[in-house]
Amino acid sequence: MPILVLYATVEGHSRKIAEHAANQLEELGHSVIVGDVREPGFAIPGRFDGVLLCAPIHMGRYPDAMVRFLRDWKDALEAVPTALISVTLGIHSENAEERAEAEGFPAKLERKTGFRPRRIHHAAGALKFLEYDFFKRMLMRQISASEGGPLDTGKDHEFTDWAALDAFVQEIADDIALAGKG
């Protein structure tokens, strides 16, 4: 059976991360189905060897569609190896308190949904200046300036550690292989 990779995205970077992870899983020999959790019609999680979820943090929370999905499919998700890639710029911060806050978002999600993934990876997102409206662009530039980050609003800036993501995907593939033997 294939692996289901589901994502929620606001500006597209979580989709890019999910698609990258799906490509890695395929390179490792797995069949993969990728879908946006907001779109109707994707398959039931219980029909997969494993599920990888990818969701961003915006305004201090995960997208409502991901929260609803986790509530609705909690039991099916717990029946297979399931992992979460939590995407937030806060994990890239030099400020220890901001990183700790970013690391705490999955626990808040668990309290809200009752679902706990077997593995969690914290991925730094991107400043999508080209996607933002004027006001958000200026706000994000100001936040970036306070962090010593990029100020060039004429392009996007990615902070994702792709090698760390690849290592996490390998761990997921190993978990699924072990579950298949049990």
Roughly what percent helix? 40-55%
Number of helices in the DSSP assignment: 5
Largest sheet: 5 strands, parallel
Could you give me the name of the CATH homologous superfamily of the largest domain?
A: Flavodoxin domain
Please report the total strand number as a whole number: 7
Overall outline: globular
Question: How large is the share of residues in beta strands?
Answer: 15-25%
Distance between the termini: 15 Å
Number of domains: 2
Low-confidence stretches are none
Q: Write the CATH fold name of the largest domain.
A: Rossmann fold
Strand order of the largest sheet: 2-1-3-4-5
Helix and strand string, N-terminal first?
EHEEHEHEEHEH
User: Mean pLDDT, nearest integer?
Assistant: 90
User: Radius of gyration, rounded?
Assistant: 16 Å
Question: How does CATH name the architecture of the largest domain?
Answer: 3-Layer(aba) Sandwich
User: What structural class is derived from the secondary structure elements?
Assistant: alpha/beta
User: How is the quaternary structure best described?
Assistant: single chain
CATH class of the largest domain: Alpha Beta
